[in-house]
Design a protein that fits this description.
This protein is an alpha/beta fold. The protein contains 31 helices and 22 strands. The protein binds adenosine-5'-triphosphate. It comes from Minwuia thermotolerans.
Length: 887
């Protein structure tokens, strides 16, 4: 070891000198920048143009941030390379920005730059660079990674891992302490003996694993060669990263996002493709996590990468789905939206086991709705072309030629319909003025007869509000129904117009209006205070023509925005055929969240096809524009999904639809063995369905767990029939850990708490500070009683316990945290305890093995399980892997 220490001391010395040099240079630049960026400097530099000032401020803010980061963390890696001519070069890599330093002997670069790849390669590996137009191979001769740390105005490098051709890898706790050992000359024999011990603890053979002390994704400034390759792939990639628990998928995802947000590291084509300013690009991303808790867990990692991550950028699907359906695509009922659809989490609408067939379900609907829409358009065109009025028939013939030319909705056909649409719009407006005039005339008559009429009607319709709008008139046009006042005389007038139109249409078709819904009830209430039969016939006939014509006034909007209405018809049809849906037991207006996903995907895909297939629809002033712009406003340059296998293929496809079409940048990571939702994606085929050109990559080095826990995890997969993974342990010197432990027959919370407390005390004895510990329980209701019982016992050790309800709070570091197992996807702890696993097996037979696997793989070193009775039968073969305690 002494020989190694002698070899690495010059490296340590150079590192510390370089840290100081970079940090000083960054601090100077920072001072300079701040001195120059006062208001006068801004005015002088930009001639006081607002855009210029904003731009200047942003640049100043960004550069300020970069220098501040460099002053706090001057470098994360050092690599010595040699080229084919034997020329050596030393590179220092900073996390994000390139350090503002020049040095004859040293080269400085950002880890995010292409040459940053050197920091990921092992000693002996080569990397191709282009120098003066020629390809040159660089071979890595020495590599060091470290965490710079300023203590008492002196730089140190903590947790450094150094490796050269002739030494290492070694882990050095402190580079400064390493240098100080060389300075000791006049030691007494006692001092020498003591310092021998501490020197040995400072420099140790091999790469060491850090203890998990806090609840948050650990910092991993330099990735391994496989992760690095993925993180550097072009922005326009569509990637799925699969890997066993702890293989660094989330880590890679966040590092990649950081790199791709930094426009400096995008190539020319990518910069063109993002089509936005730098500032927009910095905000144009969205990441999905399956749980609120994972969002909290990763937030700090975003801060380390200097990525502002407000809540609207890291989202759960549940949250975004509600927002899209209610506020953007507007097909769920709200105080301002008369839509009949009400989303209910437990709406019993869907057939059993539909989750196994969800792709076919979606495709059936999507195909049905496209065909239905076009057939209706074709029928409308035919009817118009045969209409007695010459004006109408001539327009009808024009649209018929276009519609008959294709069999399904197509971007090109919509473009061709646009010029006719405006002629039709003018005709409809004239016809509507006439029919509205007639209905208003009738209303006027009633008001003249009875001054109270409007007020009486207003109070009657306010009572109807609660009635489900089951019978919303399929032919009532959105254009007629826009901006409906909710209360008062204006609302009464709108309701009168609406009901007269329904009545008139029904008369013209020789049908009756349904009595069940609000419109039918109002008509009943009106009695003979409607229009004359003759007028109803005449208005009805005109309205039917208007409806047929309206199919063409804004065909894009009708195509996309009527998808929810078509969905209701589809559901009724298939329900009758005994497919996809329960035969009965739910209201026509109830809709399950998975059905909302289907509608959203259909609407988003339909819009995307038009945006990409016919840019002219959006580039020009057409009636289609607002419908398409609604989608373009939702686009993000980067869409990222963590724990992708917890989302259904339909949800994943919705997320992929949010990726800006120019780049279609999509990055998902997950592990099929860790799928804990019955609707989650189950296979490669599911993922290929989401995006056919998805490029799947695997990461296989499992960094989180000790040898014993890694082994247990693999056995768990084997006994549950999951797909075997190819994960291997890293070359850590301390993979050896302790056996997982098991307690049987713990029936009540007191017994459970006292067993947990003994194990926690055993862990605590090994550390100065309590590492991060999670206790997982089977239900939300068990969180409080288990925390209270454990808190009572652990109070004797001065260890506090925190109940983390609903997975909405992270809890405090230093306390033992209690979670419902449902929320712990993606997290990592030094120790995990699973309470009453046999009860979980009984409660969730279908997902038990998945939850067990996910729970057990959250632990880095210590894993404990309790059973109320005994191990579930499926786990019996693994009994021999468990011990009883860690004393
Ligand atoms: N290249 C690496 N070297 C050392 N440790 C790493 C490396 N990459 C990731 N890790 C560490 O491995 C642990 C697990 O990382 P991460 O949570 O990203 O894995 P994951 O694959 O997303 O896990 P899971 O599937 O369980 O969600 C973290 O502590 C992380 O710091």
């Amino acid at each position: 070891m002494q020989e190694t220490e002698a070899q690495i001391r010059p490296v340590a010395d150079e590192c510390l000198t370089t840290f100081a040099k970079v940090a000083d240079a960054a601090s100077l630049k920072l001072q300079d920048l701040r001195a120059r960026s006062g208001p006068e400097a801004v005015v002088r530099n930009t001639w006081n143009e607002t855009a210029g000032v904003d731009n200047h401020r942003r640049l100043t803010r960004e550069i300020d941030g970069e220098y501040r980061s460099l002053a706090a963390e001057p470098a994360i890696a050092r690599v010595l390379v040699v080229d084919e001519d034997g020329q050596e070069a030393i590179y220092y890599f900073a996390r994000a920005a390139a350090p503002p330093v020049t040095d004859e002997r040293l080269k400085f670069a950002s880890y995010r730059s292409p040459v940053g790849r050197l920091a990921e390669l092992d000693v002996g590996e080569t990397f191709l660079v282009t120098r003066g137009g020629e390809d040159v191979f660089l071979e890595v001769v020495e590599r060091a990674r470290f965490q710079p740390f300023l203590s008492n105005q002196e730089w140190d490098g903590r947790n450094a891992v150094l490796e050269g051709e002739a030494y290492g890898p070694v882990t050095v706790d402190s580079l400064r302490a390493l240098l100080e050992t060389a300075d000791r000359i006049d030691e007494t024999a006692l001092d020498a003996l003591l310092s021998e011990e501490s020197d040995a603890a400072n420099v140790r053979d091999g790469v060491r694993r850090g203890v998990v002390l806090r609840m948050g994704l650990r910092d991993q400034p330099v990735l391994d060669r496989y992760q690095g390759e993925i993180f550097r792939m072009p922005l326009r990639s569509r990637l799925l990263i699969l890997g066993a628990p702890g293989t660094g998928k989330t880590t890679t995802l966040i590092r990649r996002l950081g790199q791709k947000l930094d426009v400096v590291h995008l190539d020319e084509d990518e910069r063109r493709e993002i089509r936005s300013s730098e500032e927009e690009h910095a905000h144009s991303w969205i990441m999905f996590t399956p749980t609120e808790l994972l969002r909290l867990y990763v937030k700090e990692a975003f801060n380390r990468e200097d990525i502002p991550a407000p809540d609207d950028r890291i989202r759960t699907w549940t949250e975004l789905r509600g927002d899209l359906a209610r506020n953007h695509f507007r097909f769920l009922r709200s105080p301002t939206n008369r839509s009949p659809l009400v989303m209910k989490n437990d709406a019993p609408t869907l057939a059993d086991k539909l989750e196994l067939d969800q792709r076919a379900w979606f495709e059936d609907f999507d195909q049905w709705q496209r065909v239905t829409f076009w057939e209706e358009l074709r029928d409308a065109a035919k009817n118009l072309s045969e209409h007695p009025s010459a004006d109408v028939a001539s327009l009808g013939r024009r649209v018929r030629t276009i519609v008959d030319a294709v069999r399904m909705p197509q971007a090109g056909a919509f473009v061709s319909l646009m010029p006719v649409a405006s002629d039709i719009g003018a005709l409809v407006a004239d016809m509507k003025a006439l029919t509205d005039g007639k209905i208003r005339g009738a209303l006027n008559l009633q008001v003249n007869r009875d001054r109270e009429f409007l007020d009486d009607m207003a109070s009657f319709i306010s009572e109807l509000k609660e009635l489900p709008d089951d019978d919303i008139d399929q032919d009532a046009d959105e254009d007629e129904d826009e901006n409906q006042p909710p209360v008062g005389r204006a609302a009464a007038m709108a309701a009168y117009l609406r009901s007269m139109r329904s009545l008139a249409r029904a008369r013209a078709r020789k049908r009756n209006v349904s009595r069940r819904g609000p419109t039918g009830r109002l008509i009943e209430w009106l009695g003979d205070r409607t229009m004359s039969d003759e007028d109803l016939q005449e208005v009805g006939a005109s309205l039917l023509v208007q409806t047929a014509l309206r199919s063409f006034t804004n065909p894009v909007r009708r195509y996309v925005d009527r998808i929810p209405a078509r969905y209701r018809r589809f559901r009724r049809t298939r329900q009758g055929e005994g497919r996809w849906y329960q035969a009965d037991g739910f209201a026509l207006t109830d809709i399950h969240p998975h059905e909302v996903d289907v509608i959203l995907l259909s609407m988003m895909r339909a819009t995307n096809e038009l945006v990409t297939g016919a840019r002219s629809l959006i580039d020009m002033e057409t009636s289609a524009r607002p419908t398409l712009e609604r989608m373009t406003q939702l686009y993000r340059t980067q869409v990222l999904v963590d724990e992708a296998t917890d989302f259904s293929p339909i949800q994943l496809a919705c997320m992929a639809s949010l990726a800006r079409p120019d780049t279609r940048s999509f990055f998902a990571c997950g592990d099929f063995n860790q799928r804990v939702t019955s609707w989650g994606a189950r296979s490669d085929e599911d993922m290929k369905w989401v995006l056919p050109d998805l490029n799947t990559r695997r990461v296989t080095v499992a960094y989180r767990q000790s040898q014993q826990l890694h082994n247990l995890a693999r056995q768990l997969v084997a006994v549950s029939g999951g797909s075997e993974d190819d994960a291997v342990l890293p070359d850590f010197a301390d993979n050896e850990g302790v056996r997982p432990v098991l307690a049987r027959g713990l029936e009540n919370n007191q017994d459970i708490a006292s067993w947990l407390a003994q194990r926690i005390a055993e862990i605590d004895a090994n550390f100065d500070d309590l590492p991060s510990i999670a206790v997982l329980v089977n239900t939300e209701d068990a969180v409080r009683p288990v925390s209270d019982a454990l808190g009572d016992v652990l109070a004797d050790y001065n260890i506090s316990v925190e109940a983390c309800h609903d997975g909405r709070i992270k809890g405090r570091d230093g306390a033992v945290r209690v979670f419902h197992v449902e929320h712990i996807k993606g997290l990592e702890f030094e120790a995990v305890f699973f309470v009453s696993i046999d009860e979980l097996a009984k409660a969730l037979p279908g997902l038990f093995d998945k939850y067990l696997y996910v729970g057990a793989t959250r632990a880095a070193t210590y894993l404990g399980m309790t059973c109320r009775d005994d191990l579930p039968a499926s786990m019996a073969p693994l009994e021999g892997l468990f011990g009883e305690d860690w004393s």
